[in-house]
Every structure is written in structure tokens, then in C-alpha cells.
Amino acid sequence: xKHLSPDEIVDVAEGCAGASAAAHAAACDGCRSKAEAAAGxxxxxxxxxxxxxxxLFWTHLAARIGEAxxxxxxxxxxxxxxxxxxxxxxxxxxxxxxVGLALRMAPAPEFRPPEPAAVPVAPSAAPRDDxxxxxxxxxxxxxxxxxxxxxxxxxxxxASGVWPGPGGTEQALVHLDDxxxxxxxxxxxxxLESSRPQL
Amino acid sequence: MAICAExxxxxxxxxxxxxxxxxxxxxxxxxxxxxARLDDRRLVELCLAGRVEAFDAVVExxxxxxxxxxFRFARRHEDAADLTQEVFLRAYRGLRRFRGDAxxxxxxxxxxxxxxxxxxxxxxxxxxxxxxxxxxxxAGDDPxxxxxxxxxxxxxxxxxARLPPKQRATLILRVYQDxxxxxxxxxxxxxxxxxxxNFFHALGNLKRLLADEAGGET
Lengths: 199, 218
Prior knowledge:
heterodimer; A: mainly alpha; about 60% helix; B: mainly alpha; Rna Polymerase Sigma Factor, Chain: A; two-stranded antiparallel sheet
């Protein structure tokens, strides 16, 4: 014969056992005495009355807990609590990042030689038109470039991405031969002359 | 509700008022609803929405049972009050973790058992707490029987205090808090079978401890 398990004995002691467990307890002295002992212990435990403080105590306790709860940090989400404080820092970080990226992607500043002191230059015999023709007027590629670039401003060229890469200008200068350097010097002098304020 | 209409008798000087009571169509759980009438789940929602006064209603509703639980463990009125406050503070801090698939009371009991077991393990309760001393109840019995009852009550409290923690928690929740085994299992994070087995052993140990106490007193 299989005796009742502890949880079945508890069910019998509490009067909520199933039919088979109740029938077994009725027939088995051992299981019945265990169930009766458990029921007696429950009755004995119930003798110990709980405290019943005065009604004022509950008011006091509720107020005390309420105060403690209100001393707790506000129950708001992290972003609601800190978001507005972090927003300026986040905006500054984004700005710094954007400026850093822009600087990194922008071309290196073009080397600009210091403006030379005014050097007396013998005026050329005749004004030259370098835009088309001139000494290079026979060069068809130069002619084509001159025609194409005649109406393009530097700003438009920069905006459309036609712009020397970093260090490109210096590279170009380094690779000029003597004749080209001489020609460049002439062009620069002519530009300086034309941009000099008329006295 | 709203008062809707009045009637004027034709030619009469006296006004006759007809009052028609129209039930309000507003949501009873809206912001203006008395918090004490809301169920626990709605109160928790309001707490999470930032209305701390909703938690006051939770405290008022459950403080008695939580205090009783804490007193069964701590056996001192002052300690029980402190532990009750701690239970509610922890509940408030962890309110987002209350999923609502169990009763709020069961969840509070679970916190309460943890807080109390930590308390009794950290601070070993004296063999005889002050509140274990026989105290006469104010009404009812004659002094002699009241004293005998109080003495027996103190003896049982001492015996319960000597039970192993899990058995003690199970017995307290079952016998004094009248929780069903299923809710005790939820509160203790175990199974119904384990709860019943613990309860069975708790009752056996309590019987032995009471016998020891009786032997010690004679």
C-alpha cells in the first residue's frame, strides 16, 4: 500500500484532499495520525495572535512611508531625466564631429606665396591677351581649355568639384619646366600690375 | 452625475424642480477618480506615470498585511515598522518590474519575505524579543485566562522564530497571512509541491519545538 506524500497529508490536514487521499487517510492509521498532527500544529500556530496596533499607527506608518517614497529620486525615465541636460553636450559633440569631418574632407589650403614687394617692371611693349591666342594660341588644347574656362568662375569650379586636390598646386609648380615657370611669372606680374590701384 | 432639468408649472408661482440624475460618462479611472477606488493594477500604472499619490493608496491598502508579515519575522514592533517601510520602498523602486501576472499583494509578500529573511539572517533575533513577552489583550477574557493566552501566544512565536527560514516563511504565509499554496509558491519562487512539502516539515518541526518549550518551562 502506497502511503500519502507530505503534500497529500497537508491537503488532508487542511480538509481539501482529493477523494482517493481522503479515503486512504481514513483507512491508514499512520497517514491519519500524521494528518492529525499537522492539523494540530496548524491550530497551535494560530494561537499566536498577530499584533493589532492602534488605528493611529497605520496613519503614522503610511505617512512615514509616503515621506520616504517622496525622498526617492523621481520615477522618470533616463532620457526624460537627463536628456535635456545632455542635449547641449550632444549638440556640441555633433558640431565638433561635423567640423572635423569637413576639415578632413576639404582640400588643403592652396599655397599662396607672400605678395612680393613692388618691383619695377618694364612695361611690356604691348598689352597681351592671354585668354585666347597669344603665344599659346597655336596650341589647340590650350585654346580649348581657354574657351571652356572663359565663362567659369573659380567659385563655380569649386562648387562643381573641379578643384585641385590637396597639394595639387604645389605638385603642379614643382613639375613646371623653365619655360613654363617663366610664363607663369609673366602672368603673375601682369596680374599684379593690373590689380595695382591706379594712383 | 448631472442635474438636468427643471419644470415650471403653468401660471403657478411656486417652482417645482425635477432633478434628473445622469450617470457621468467619464472614465472612473481618470485623473480625478478617487485613488482608493482603483484596483492595484491601475494604481501601479498611475505610479509609473509619475503620480506618487497613487502609491500612497497602495500603501494604505497593503500596509497592514505587510506589517503583519514583517512582525511574524522580526517579532518587534519597531523592527516590523522599519521592515514594512523597506518593503514598500523596494516595491516603489522596482515597480517597473511588476508585470501584473500575479497579484500586487503576492509581489509585495515576495519582497517582504526577502527583506525579512535578510533581516533575520543579518541581525539574529534575540531568543526572546520584547514583543514576545506575554501581553494582556485589552478586552474580553478575565485576566488569568488572558495571561495564559498571551503566554501561549508568545511561546508559539518563539517556536516559529526557530524554524528554518523557508519553513518559517511558508508557515507564516499559510497560517497567518492565509495565502493559498499557489500564491505562496509565487511569492517564494517555487512550486506548489515544494510549498506543501515545506509546510508539512514546518508543522512537524513546530510541534517538536512547542513540545521542547513546554518541557523547558516545566
